[in-house]
Design brief:
Elements (H helix, E strand, L loop, with lengths): L2 H11 L2 E7 L9 H10 L3 E6 L6 H11 L4 E4 L8 H11 L5 E6 L6 H9 L6 E3 L8 E6 L2 E5 L8 H6 L12 H14 L1 H8 L7 H12 L10 H14 L15
Parallel strand pairs: 1-2, 1-4, 2-3, 4-7
Antiparallel strand pairs: 5-6, 6-7
Helix pairs in contact: 1-2, 7-8, 7-10, 9-10
């Protein structure tokens, strides 16, 4: 069974869908596929903006105004247990059905697993396989009134797009340089000082020059002292994915008001 087919199946079986997105780029980490399917099936969807601790409150408030025009939206940091009580409340209020079956979906690296594990917590009572699915899809009793569908299924995106929104490890890319250069240009346009702060390398307007300097600074050198820009590119992508790079996007960056 394909990964996307697993996600579709889990959504069909759920009473409520939780779509997890990254607070540093809420708009770019949404899934139109998930939202269209959920709407077509007539199921309530809650957007959970995770990693909210990485973004200034004023920026989160701007995103809240945008996202709440369309969907019920809450902001949390699952890893730090901030705002999680709002998640429980949102799930309870989304439907009158009891027990309620919740599907937690999202692209990789948005914190979906952390949220699932939090909901399971100390209250969970075992797991059971879902008939018709592979053994990797399970239903967990998280509370008397709550069941969580747990699946490793991922939402389809192009590899380059996945890497840029933190969902694909740089080691999995055939060539990380184009993705890193796109990201560097994005950061430099908004906050070039952040690059200097992180890497102690001045931004001079050219991402390849920046990667060459970073490679030299980190000692990523090949034969004859040639800078290994691919290794420097992996560092840039990895730092963004792990949160070491605190760069974030705002509604204005998408032309949203």
């Amino acid at each position: 069974m394909s990964e996307w087919r697993k996600v579709r199946g889990v959504i069909r079986r759920a009473d409520v869908v939780v779509e997890v997105v990254d607070a540093r780029d809420p708009w770019g980490t949404r899934s139109s596929e998930v939202e269209r399917l959920t709407d077509r099936l007539g199921k309530p969807l809650v957007i959970v903006v995770n990693k909210a601790d990485l973004v200034p409150k004023a920026v989160l408030e701007k995103w809240a105004r945008i996202l709440r025009r369309e969907r019920k939206t809450i902001f949390i940091s699952a890893a730090k247990r901030l705002g999680t009580r709002y998640l429980w409340r949102a799930l309870k209020e989304s439907t009158n059905k009891r027990p309620v079956i919740v599907a937690v979906v999202g692209i990789p690296n948005v914190g979906k697993s952390t949220i699932i594990n939090y909901l399971k917590g100390s209250h969970s009572v075992g797991t059971s396989p879902i008939p018709g699915f592979t053994r990797h899809v399970t239903r967990v009793r998280a509370a008397k009134w709550l069941r969580v569908l747990d699946t490793p299924g991922v939402i389809p995106r192009q590899p380059g797009e996945l890497a840029l929104i933190s969902a694909l490890r740089p080691e999995a890319l055939d060539d990380p340089v184009p993705i890193a250069t796109r990201f560097l240009e994005l950061v430099a346009k908004k906050n070039p000082g952040l690059l200097k702060e992180l890497y102690e390398v001045e931004w001079e307007g050219d991402p390849l020059t920046f990667l060459e300097k970073l490679a030299r600074r980190r000692g990523f050198l090949g034969k004859g002292g040639t800078p290994l820009v691919e290794e420097a590119a992996k560092v840039v992508i990895r730092d963004w994915q792990t949160g070491r790079n605190t760069f974030y996007l705002e509604p204005e960056d998408y032309g949203l008001a």
